[in-house]
Amino acid sequence: MSSSLNLVxxxxxxxxxxxxxxxxxxxxxxxxxxxxSYRQADKKGIATIIVKCLIxxxxxxQSGTSQIASSVLSPxxxxxxxxxxxxxxxxxxxxxxxTRALTNFDAAGALTYVGQARAxxxxxxxxxxxxxxxxxxxxxxxxxxxxxxxxxxxSIITAGIRAH
Length: 164
Prior knowledge:
It is a single chain. By secondary structure, this protein is mostly helical. It is built from 6 helices and no strands. The chain has helices at 12-19, 25-33, 43-71, 75-103, 107-128, 138-163.
């Protein structure tokens, strides 16, 4: 079953309206405005930009957790961060699937993919929590940001489904 997002031309008012639907409106606006094409974005475009921000953060986390895995001596810690890196690689794949789903007006499919990507972050946060004092602070900070952006994406895509 396919759901679609309303097509309405994008501008600052539309972006503010969409971002007010989320728990993190400032983060939402910052993410959207980081894309050079944001002024032309309709609701589908706004959702796609948010997913692209998630892809960027998944890539950053994949690289960061992979670097930790390759530099630690503890076999247990190595496995934890190799698993995290693999999870963020998977997240990257399904988030790319989410952008394709949005392009095809399949908001329900996009929502499923975003949920799968969010689970990869949650799994890594859970398994790596014991290493918070040992790993670079940027990793847990990125994980929190990733979780917040996942929430933003879910809210905007869900609102698009409800509006249709």
